[in-house]
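Sanity check. The docking grid for NAP depends on where the pocket ends up, so I'm generating a full predicted complex first rather than guessing from homology. Inputs follow.
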Amino acid sequence: MSSSIRVGLLGCGVVGGATARILLEHADTVSQKAGVRVDLARIAVRSLSKQREISLPPETYTTDPWEVVGDPNIDVIVEAMGGIEPALDLILHAIRSGKHVVTANKELLSTLGREVMAAADEAGVDVLFEASVAGGIPIVRPMKESLAGDRVKRVMGIVNGTTNYILTQMSETGVSFTEALGQAEELGYTELDPSSDIEGFDAASKIAILASIAFGARVVAGDVHREGISKVTAADVDAAHQLGYEVKLLAVAEIEDGQVAVRVHPAMLPRTHPLASVRDVYNAVFVEAEEVGELMFLGRGAGGPPTASAVVGDIVELARNIKSESRSPGSAYYREPAHIKAQDEVGVRYYVVLSVQDQPGVLSSVAGMFAHHGISIASVRQEGFGDQASLVLITHHATEAQHAATFGDLEQLDAVKSVGSRMRVEGTSES
Ligand SMILES: NC(=O)c1ccc[n+]([C@@H]2O[C@H](COP(=O)([O-])OP(=O)(O)OC[C@H]3O[C@@H](n4cnc5c(N)ncnc54)[C@H](OP(=O)(O)O)[C@@H]3O)[C@@H](O)[C@H]2O)c1
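Predicted complex below; grid placement will be based on this.
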């Protein structure tokens, strides 16, 4: 074995740049923790003329990432380019050349994780991806290692900082979704096209990765039932407050009857739930396991330094493995597809607002319709009167299909003018 571990970096942007800086500035700590010197050997970028936050000899850089993955002196490839291609081909080439890989690429792992992990198993190398979920929060390693002997029942997370910032603004200042999105854009919290965050695609990728590890079987982003926050109104947030709830974009993965139910959607959470107090761009993952009970991991889910902190942690683990000729825990969770529970069959609770006629018997006809579909009502409150009368209900647990059928049939009742806002309720002792 050589006297140092040589790292090749693909990409030197937000994450890659901070990774390079930490490797240089914390070189002594990193080498001490790894038990071997860790050298940043080569960096692939798109543009050689761009100003970088670190100063390295020009020959460190190349615009040809194949040169880096093909370099026989490099032991570890850090993929911080993003996207599917050419990242996938480069990672596969690195793996097949016997190099270990660290990646922050949730998009790639949540769609093609199986291909990457199968290649790694075949080549006898490791692929580590702590930074791909919730940036700087250590969640992948605790789930893979610390909870290896437990049975995870549910993982519930706020895993997208942009949407959490928007919902925090709506909650704390009463602004509309559009105004809060504008503020997020001004602060640089959004991508050029914000839809990946707003419509829940980013959170879906992350919960697919977490669900795969939590339940030991492959879940891909396409398995995730997904709804974004663009339809959440200031009135919904206000109604949630009146009931003692906060609105959050939740990513939920749980095991029900041996099947994995996995979804991303806005939900009302009781203010007493630990996730309800996660504000601004912070992320948090709440894990419930059979033996350990409830755990929460909180921190910065994005940004260069937090994400790079996770990347460097993975580099150190790989350097130790190389030195001790060992491997990290295997990637069995990517081998077999998980049995995914159809969203229609998933048990949920709902908050729903019905605009109703202000006349005797309304409540009993509404309650009768819920009962007809096998749903019991946890709470009901009447608001307004005359033309403005409405009923605000929270249901007990029943399937999505039961709720959908009930909402459809309620519209047909003479007493009900319309079925208004509705939102799932999570984080109660029942859910
Ligand atoms: N940003 C975050 O907070 C965050 C958090 C968690 C995970 N991630 C993930 O980390 C990855 C990187 O994200 P990022 O925000 O760091 O992206 P970024 O700032 O856009 O950086 C991408 C880097 O890759 C280089 N690059 C892109 N295509 C290339 C090519 N074909 N050949 C050579 N170099 C190429 C770019 O070169 P130039 O510099 O020359 O343009 C740039 O340095 C993504 O998978 C992302 O999902 C990001």
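Relevant for the grid: The chain has three domains: 4-136+304-332, 140-300, 343-425.
Also worth noting: The pocket of NAP is lined by residues 11-16, 44-47, 50, 65, 80-82, 86, 104-106, 131, 135, 302-303, 307 (CB under 6 Å).
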